[in-house]
């Protein structure tokens, strides 16, 4: 974590960032929650962990100061640090518009879909390409799985800005569920040609294309290293690959690196470039780098 971010920041005429008051190794300075729009009723994108009263106080005070209420909450994905405060927001009716406040998220597509049934509020399903309107802002959903199966980015059309959630962060790299889906999502986001990046964690960036390009280059470089390692050494276990590719990596980081390498191997096997032999992996015969 390098940049120091204020608790509340006016990022543009229609976007205010509220930090989730939950800093940590995985959340960096804290989850970025965004108040979007210019009118008396606005949209909130993402929240914070459950029980974060400092975040709820900051959100409530900001809304009162602006004389603004919430008409909708958009959620990028199911992780607790993004959805944790939806119950508290639902209970505090003073935060809602006169027509109420609705909650929206893309459904999960796997076994963890049962988590959706345990939310303390009714979640309306988001559809890829769906648009949400509030005064001063048009927000379009873009399905971007990979970090999670339900991950959704949002485009603020008036600014040509991308709310990238945890698909692309303001600092460092992100964890994944499925690398093949994730790479497709990165290329999809790059193709949007957004000018501004509003990430799920870390500082915003006025050159979204450059940041997304760096993410793509990082993953492609690591993939090449894994392939070259197998090409040179033949059959290898995941740990052997890790110790070869991540030379000098501290022991306490081996597990995390192993999970990353496993993601790359899964993608390479899907593409028919690598095969599994017992507990080892090797480049498929006749495949050339």
UniProtKB/TrEMBL annotation:
GO BP: any one term: RNA 3'-end processing
Keywords: Hydrolase, Metal-binding, Zinc
Coiled coil: none
Domain Metallo-beta-lactamase: start-end pairs: 30-201
InterPro entries: LACTB2-like_MBL-fold (IPR047921), LACTB2_WH (IPR041516), Metallo-B-lactamas (IPR001279), RibonucZ/Hydroxyglut_hydro (IPR036866), Sec-metab_biosynth-thioest (IPR050662), WH-like_DNA-bd_sf (IPR036388)
Pfam families, sorted: Lactamase_B, WHD_BLACT
UniProt key word Membrane: no
Top-level lineage group: Eukaryota
GO molecular function, one term: hydrolase activity
Keyword Zinc: yes
Xref: Gene3D superfamilies: Ribonuclease Z/Hydroxyacylglutathione hydrolase-like (3.60.15.10), Winged helix-like DNA-binding domain superfamily/Winged helix DNA-binding domain (1.10.10.10)
Family: Belongs to the metallo-beta-lactamase superfamily. Glyoxalase II family.
Name the record gives this protein: Beta-lactamase-like protein 2 homolog
Protein's organism: Cloeon dipterum
Phylogenetic placement of the source organism: Eukaryota, Metazoa, Ecdysozoa, Arthropoda, Hexapoda
């Amino acid at each position: 974590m390098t940049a120091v971010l204020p608790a509340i920041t006016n990022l543009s005429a229609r976007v205010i960032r509220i930090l989730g008051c939950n800093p940590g190794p995985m959340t960096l300075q804290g989850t970025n929650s965004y108040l979007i729009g210019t009118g008396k009723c606005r949209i909130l994108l993402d929240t914070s962990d459950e029980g974060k009263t400092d975040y709820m106080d900051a959100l409530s005070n900001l809304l009162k100061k602006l004389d603004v209420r919430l008409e909708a909450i958009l959620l990028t994905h199911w992780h607790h640090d993004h959805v944790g405060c939806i119950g508290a927001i639902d209970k505090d009716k003073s935060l809602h518009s006169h027509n109420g406040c609705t909650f929206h998220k893309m459904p999960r597509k796997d076994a963890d879909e049962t988590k959706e049934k345990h939310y303390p509020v009714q979640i309306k399903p988001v559809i890829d390409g769906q648009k949400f309107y509030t005064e001063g802002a048009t927000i379009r959903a873009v399905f971007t799985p990979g970090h999670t199966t339900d991950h959704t980015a949002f485009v603020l059309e008036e600014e040509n800005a991308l709310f990238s959630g945890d698909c692309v962060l303001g600092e460092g790299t992100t964890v994944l569920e499925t690398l093949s889906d994730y790479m497709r999502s990165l290329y999809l986001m790059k193709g949007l040609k957004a000018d501004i990046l509003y990430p799920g964690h870390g500082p915003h960036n006025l050159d979204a294309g450059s940041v997304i390009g760096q993410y793509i280059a990082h993953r492609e470089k690591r993939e090449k290293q894994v392939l070259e390692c197998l090409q040179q050494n033949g059959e290898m276990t995941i740990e052997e690959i890790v110790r070869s590719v991540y030379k000098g990596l501290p022991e306490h980081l081996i597990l995390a690196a192993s999970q990353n390498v496993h993601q790359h191997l899964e993608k390479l096997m899907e593409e028919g470039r690598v095969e599994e032999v017992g507990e080892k992996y090797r480049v498929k015969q006749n495949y050339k780098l």
